[in-house]
Amino acid sequence: MQINDCQSLEEVRHHIDNLDDQIVELIAARNAYVKQAANFKHSIDEIKANERMEAVMDRVRSRAMEFGVSPNLLTKLYSIMIDAMVEAEISEFRNAKSL
Q1: According to the 3-state scheme, what is the secondary structure of 7-64?
Q2: pLDDT at position 44, please?
Q3: pTM (2 d.p.)
Q4: Rounded CA gap, 2 and 18, in Å?
Q5: Tens-place pLDDT, residues 10-49
Q6: Which residues contact 81 (CB under 8 A, 6 or more apart)?
Q7: Which long-range contacts (CB under 8 A, 24 or more apart) does 73-80 make?
Q8: Contact status, residue 57 vs residue 78, Cβ threshold 8 Å
Q9: What confidence tens digit (pLDDT) does each residue in 63-99 have?
């Protein structure tokens, strides 16, 4: 990961805005894959997959520490994101089963 030395506040904000755009795009991609996962699961319990969620959180905490970011911050963000995506996956699962 390369961080540029900025010469102005506007330049800093420009880089932050670009990163925010990438983060939103990556979250959208993650959400699309989560919805696809519903096609391979057979029950709501399988969707909730607590062991998988714990593994993801452990990996995220570890990566946060590697990059010098607060593991607590990323744990909170991922918790919110995963909860919302699990709900979307459950909805996708129910819709597919009702067809």
Answers
A1: CCHHHHHHHHHHHHHHHHHHHHHHHHHHHHHHHHCCCHHHHHCHHHHHHHHHHHHHHH
A2: 92
A3: 0.86
A4: 14
A5: 999 999 999 999 999 999 999 999 989 988 999 999 999 9
A6: 27, 30
A7: none
A8: yes
A9: 999 999 999 999 999 999 999 999 999 998 888 877 6
Q: Burial letters for 46-82: b for 16+ Cβ neighbours within 10 Å, e otherwise? A: ebeeeeeeeeebeebbeebeeeeeeeeebeeebeeeb
| CA dist., res. 17 & res. 25, Å (int) | 12
Give the angle 33-41-74 at the CA atoms, nearest 5°.
45
The CA distances from residue 70 to 9, 13, 63, 67, 82, in Å, are 24, 21, 10, 9, 18
